[in-house]
Amino acid sequence: MNLNVIDSTGDFTPAEMRIFQTELIALRAKYGDDPGTSEQAAAHEAGHAILCAALGWRFDESRVTWDGVVWHGATMWKHRLTGKAFRKVDEPDHVFAMAIQDLGGRSGEMFAGSFHPASSVDERCSASFLCLDLDAIAGLPSGTSYKRAEAIAKRAIAANAKTFHEFRARLERQRYVKAKEGRSLLRAVAPITPAPDFRKGAATSGRERQRQSAQRLLTAK
What we know:
mainly alpha, three-stranded antiparallel beta sheet, 55% helix
C-alpha cells in the first residue's frame, strides 16, 4: 500500500504509533514524499501477491486506484487464521509469515526498481514490531527475525521473477486482478516454508525497550 495513507496501523499501540509517525516524518523530510506512481503501486501489490501464493495463502484480489494525487493499492487474501483470535506465543510461525508478507510490498518495489524510502513505512513498522515480539519469544537478539523475514521476502520474489513481472504488468494495465485470474497467474509460484527456531514461552520483559530499537531496523537502504 502507498504510504501517503495509513493502512497497516490499526493494531499499533500508542507507543508503536509514535514510532511510526516519527519515522515517517523523518523519512519524508530527508527524501520527500512517496511519489505513488502506478508502476510503484503495481509492483508493491505484485510483491504481496507473490508472497501470498508462496506462503500458501488464498489469493482473493489485487487492485490499484488513483485518488487524484497518487496511486494506491490493495491485495486481499485469506489464511487458516483469518478472522480468528490467537496469541503470538502460540503461533510464532504464522506471526513470522505475517511479517514476511508485510515486507512483500516493499520487496516488490525494490525488485522492480521503483522503491522510494518513504514508501511502505507502515508495513515495515508492522513487520518490525511483529519480529521484535518473536525475538523476545525465542530469546533472539533484537532484529534477528526482521532480517530473516526481509531476506525470505526478497528471495521469494526473485525466485518467481517471471510471475512477478506478469502479475505486475497485468495489474498496471487492468488496475484489477480478480481471484480466478490471480490464482491462475500465481499457480507457478514456488512455495516457501519459513522454519525459524522459535521457542515458545520465553519471557518478554523489556518490551518497550525493544520497541524503540525498531527505528534502527527501518533505516532506508
